[in-house]
Amino acid sequence: MTILDGRTSVNTGTEDAIALVEQYAAHNYSPLPVVAASAEGVWITDVEGRRYLDCLSAYSAVNFGHRNPEITATAHAQLDTVTLVSRASHAAALGPFCAGLARLCGKDMVLPMNSGTEAIESGLKAARK
After folding, report:
1. Cβ(13)–Cβ(48) under 8 Å?
2. Whether the Cβ atoms of residue 78 and residue 91 lie closer than 8 Å to each other
3. Backbone φ, ψ for residue 113 (5° rounding)
4. Beta strands of 3-80 (E only): which ranges?
5. pLDDT digits (tens, 9 = 90+) for 3-55
6. What is the pTM of this model?
7. pLDDT band at 113; cut points 50, 70, 90
8. pLDDT by residue (tens digit) across 65-81?
9. Which regions of the chain does DSSP assign to beta strands (E)?
């Protein structure tokens, strides 16, 4: 059972989908009146079946396109191995990843982050020392 059990269809029309978000989601953005239902490569298809060229790339999160086959395969391979390892323990892939990223960036060390908030927090901690 999930929180989505008993919901109305995801394939509602644009107006109904937007009205539901307006009712239950905090209003921190003013998005375009487009309700994405699927995407592949540079194209997004809305709930009405219209296609749009995605020039936003989710603020760089999908610069290689939606559902990029190589990225999707890599993500699946990782998820098939381990979903997430807390930094409270070590992960086998973290060392090689950090070494490769440090070499790529020409740095001695790197500090991977999940979000901008974590980056700010870490920057403040490092500045304090």
Report:
1. yes
2. no
3. -130, 155
4. 36-40, 43-46, 51-53
5. 666 655 566 899 999 999 999 999 998 999 999 999 999 999 999 999 999 99
6. 0.68
7. confident
8. 999 999 999 999 999 99
9. 36-40, 43-46, 51-53
pLDDT of residue 4: 66
What order do you get walking across the sheet with 36-40 strand by strand?
36-40, 43-46, 51-53
Angle at 25 between CA 71 and CA 68, to 5 degrees: 10
Q: Which two tokens stand for residue 2?
A: 């999930």
Q: Give the 3-state secondary structure of residue 37.
A: strand
What is the number of residues in the chain? 129
- Indicate the residue type of 3: I
Phi and psi torsions of 93, nearest 5°: -85, -15
Nearest CA to 14 out of 36, 39, 44 is that of 36
What is the distance between the alpha carbons of residues 120 and 47, in angstroms, rounded to a whole number? 37
